[in-house]
Amino acid sequence: MKVTVENKKGLNKDLKIFIDKETINSYMDEKYEEIKGSVNLKGFRPGKVPKEILKRQFGKAVFGEVLDKVLKETSTKALEEKKIKPAGQPKLDLKTYGEDKDLEYVLSVTELPKVEIKSLENIKYDEYTVKIDENETDKRIKEIAKNQPNFKEVSADTKAKKGDLVSLDYKATVDGEDFKGSEGKNTQLTLGKDLFLKGFDEQLIGVKKDDEKIVEATLPENFPEKELVNKKAKFNCKILSVKQSEEVKIDDDFAKNLGAKDLKDLKTLISKQINDEYKNSLDQLSKNQILKEIEKIKIDEVPENLVEEEVKVLSQGMSEEEKKKNKKNFEEKAKIRIKTGLILNEFGEKNQIKVTEQEVQVEVQKQLRMMPGQEKMVMDFYQKNPSALASLRGTVYEEKILNLIKEKGKANKKEVSKEEAKKILKEAHKHDHNHSHGEVKKETKKKSPTTTVKEKKPVAKKEKLKPTTKKTKKVSKK
Q1: Of 459, 338, 344, which Cα lies nearest the Cα of 395?
Q2: Do 405 and 279 touch, CB atoms closer than 8 A?
Q3: Worst-scoring range by mean pLDDT, 55-64, 252-261, 270-279, 365-374?
Q4: Residue 262 confidence (pLDDT) above 90
């Protein structure tokens, strides 16, 4: 194989590739040997069909398969030999080809630009830790305690008031007749919440244990027995107990009920919980700072084909008029995203960052937890959409790259209070809002360039090159 690089115009290159006919013929012979053992032709024993007969019967199909194989293998090899990383799918133009002929073709490729990543090792960013005041922790624990139900039964002569928990048995009738679902046993109602039937609770205010009370209420629109909707029902209620809420005592037992070892352990867990509520957002601020610094790194030329693809992503779902109006803005945005993606990719490749299947599944589980009740739908979506799973893999890959850049960079460590953290996040949100004001937003929520950050894969091995020849059918082996 002979490879010469021609037509150098910036990132665009033409690779002229020549393979002599002897090499092609050796591929052809190899294919004939492969099919000889499985082809059944009348008058010949299996495996004994002469090559000339096979050529007459299957020559065109064999050549089509051999050509496809040679093009894939040699194009990949040529790119590796010339150390060219393609930006997108190369175009292939056949010049000479045929049975018992030399093969010559031109591979037109846009090369990925060279990027500088050394400066990433000294990148500067702010790293925040939130100092949680003990009063904040105590306040949160009191809120939790306030929402914990803690009802104690009162004496038999104590009347129920708003906020008390009343337990009752009831039997209901409409126009003196029983109906389906008209009986209830040990029904518990917190008076004042009005969660059973509208106006039911307030009629129980003042009842005592062992009282009997007739309560009237209108059956609602969603009542299962449609013929009874909006009809007035009489409920003969037998009061079983009246309980009043008591303030929960915050002690070791309370902490243990919440899964902590003791009260001290609960305070540690709650402090961490409050910290984590801010940590993720503040960490994202740090990563956004890093991405802004990466945007300042210069790249001489960004591949136009990648810009075009990225503009399509950014303008997805827009009318032609909107696309035209925002074209320049999208092109600028696309160049920044691609440039950032190329730099991150190069850093990931140089540092041999990989994403395991387990890490992808962990991310899938995160998505499932974000949509409770719709887990099956989300799982089905990822199973049926490989591109969505690939995008998730890209997100994990990018996250690992940014985390390593943070490790290697120079952190300006800042300890802030909860209030200061709130203010920092509010200002960052305000800045982002002002920055994007007036723009037509069609991007993904994440600002980082996940569309261009992908794990390093072999370029041509998995992508089928399409020569400009007629398709030939596969060799039948039966």
Answers
A1: 344
A2: no
A3: 55-64
A4: yes
Q: What is the pLDDT of residue 477?
A: 43
Fold for domain 118-129+280-436? Trigger factor, domain 2 (1.10.3120)
| Whether CATH 3.30.70.1050 fits 2-110 | yes
- pTM value is 0.61
What residues does each domain of the chain span? 2-110, 118-129+280-436, 151-245
- Residue range 59-74: average pLDDT? 89
Assigned CATH class of 151-245: alpha beta
The pLDDT tens digits of the residues spanning 340-375 come to 999 999 999 999 999 999 999 999 998 888 888 888
